[in-house]
Structures are given as C-alpha cells and as structure tokens.
Amino acid sequence: MFRRILRQLLYAAALILAVLVLNFLLIQLAPGDPAEVIAGEMGGASAEVMAAIRQQYGLDKPLLTQLGLYLGRALQGDLGMSYFYNRPVVDLILSRLGPTMLLVATALGFALVVGTRLGMLASRNPRGIASAVVTVLSLVGYSAPVFWTGLMLVILFGATIPLFPIAGMIDVVKQGGFLSRILDIAHHLVLPALTLGLVYLAQYSRLTRASMLEVLGADYIRTARAKGVSERQVFGRHAFRNALLPVVTVAGMQFGAIISGAVLVETVFSWPGLGTLAFQSILARDYPTVLGILFFSTLIVIIANLLTDFVSRLLDPRLAGGR
To answer: How far from 282 is each of 29, 178, 179, 303, CA to CA, in Å?
Structure first.
C-alpha cells in the first residue's frame, strides 16, 4: 500500500514537472509580444521603455534561461507577477479559486445526485415510459452545447420569467448581514450551476442506467431475489453500490473537463472565477497568469484523480487487494 502511494506521488510530481515545461513552451509559440502589451497599458512604447520592460520581466533572456528561472520559481511556489493586474499570480489565482470551486462543486454535486437518481429510475423498468423520458432528456442534455444551454436559461429565467440574476456573484447594491450574503450568492449561483450541471447530469443518468441494468442481470442479484430480499434492498443495497463504481470513476476523471467547461459558463454569467480570469488574461496576453491557471488546473485534476482512485478502492475491495 505504502509503495503504491509513493509510486503515485512520484508519478504525480513527474507529471506536474512535464506540464510546467510543456505549458511554458506552448505559451512561447503564441503570437504577440508581452512587452508591447505592457507598454500599451503604460501608455508608452519607446525603445527605452520596451527594453526596460523586457529587462524587468526577464523577457530579454534566452528561452532556456527563462524556462530555468520559471521552473525554479514555480517549484518554490512563485508563479511570477501578472503583467495585466500587476499582482503576484498566486494571489490572483487564489482570489478567484473559491468562486470556481463553489461553482464546479455545486454543478458536480447536482449532476451526480440527480443523474444517478434518474438512472436508477430508468433502470427499474427499461421499457417503460419513465426510462424513455429519461433517455430522451439525457440525449438532449448531452447534445446541447454549454453556452447554448446558458443562453436559453438566461432568456427563460432572466428575461422572460425574471427569477434569478444573470450576471455576477453578489448584488453590490444589496446590503445585509452574513446570512443575507450567503443567500445572495446562492441566488446568483443557480443559473451558472444549472447550466454546467445539466450536461454532466445527462451523462451520469445514462451511465447509471446502463451500469444498473448490467448489475441487475448478475447472478448474485438473482440469488438475492430468490431468497426473498425486497426490491428496495436489491436496488439500494446490492445493486447501487456496485453500479456506482463506474460513475464515480468517470466523475473523477471528468473533473478537469468540468473546470474547462466552467470557462464558458463563467464568461456567459460574468462569474468572477478562474474561467473569467483565464479569458481576460488570454485577451491581454498576460502569460504568467495563463501559465499559473494551467498549472493550478493540472494540480486540481491530479488531486481529483488520486481521490477517485482512493474512493474506487473503498467501493470495491478487490481493487484494494490488487486483484
């Protein structure tokens, strides 16, 4: 067990180092000169100003030297200064990480809970009306682009039936205490989380339905029914736990994709998270911030995969035994 954990940690460290190098080299291939962007923000672009900017940010050094300096700082937790915001990249990302994690966790929780329940409902009678309705709705939800779903929800619940705010995380005009602020954030969170969650809800409902049907056809389920175990216990105790394993595995592997999907959702709803920051940083050619966001996203995906592996072994003891 200890050897396995140590091997996974070494693999994760090597992967992080490879991602740091690859991201840095890919950013260098992007068009545009960061010094020109910074000079434009300062309102001047003379040769002296450009040379001073390149020297200040190390842009005048050879590529390998820049890479070595970047890796040395990154391994010490320093991701540099933002060209556009003139703040340490780590501080900038940490200030936006909370809203993104709140959005992703809410959307993922909604998708997992509702998706698995719908999948179980559809598996009870595969040829029934409920199964057909869930299958059709899952196909529609899976096929619809995230930004289209967001725009439809904005039109329906923001303009036609104005129940929810369509932009931002808080109402800057509204005053109140701590509880009022929490409720205000939850009110703003509904449409972005619903937009992001609907796509993955469709996937989890289809996956749960297929997995439940496979498990319900197993010999041990027939044995349990022959012994007189109630259908409630067969579904809830015997079938659901085994059917949940592929759903948890896919959800963990999709965590990175959900964060990527959050970029579009945050842009549509002006949600102040990492997605909005990434979009603004790319437009401003703020390379240190873009590199920092890519690094944090990679780190989150690796941690999510490690946790997924741990949860999978809890659900299936055969994996823990290495068999």
So the answer is: 13, 35, 36, 25
Q: Tell me the C-alpha distance between 158 and 168, whole Å.
A: 13
Q: CB within 8 A of 64, min separation 6: which ones?
A: none
For residue 19, give both structure tokens. Answer: 């991602």
Please provide the DSSP assignment of 31-85 as one string.
SS-HHHHHHHHHT---HHHHHHHHHHTTTTS-HHHHHHHHHHHHTTT---B-TTT
Rounded Cα gap, residues 249 and 262, in angstroms: 20
Query: What are the pLDDT digits (tens) for 117-175?
Result: 888 888 888 788 888 888 888 888 778 888 888 888 888 988 888 888 888 888 877 77
For 14-43, how does the pLDDT look when each residue is reduced to its tens digit (9 = 90+)?
888 888 888 888 877 776 677 776 776 555
Cα–Cα distance measured from residue 140 to residue 205, given in angstroms and rounded to the nearest whole number: 12
| DSSP codes, 128-175 | SHHHHHHHHHHHHHHHS-HHHHHHHHIIIIIIIS--S--S-SS-SS--
d(CA 115, CA 314): 22
139-148, 202-211, 222-231, 301-310: range with highest mean pLDDT: 202-211
Q: Which residue, 207, 201, 210, 208, is CA-closest to 142?
A: 201
Structure tokens at 300: 């989150």
Task: Quote the pTM value.
Answer: 0.78
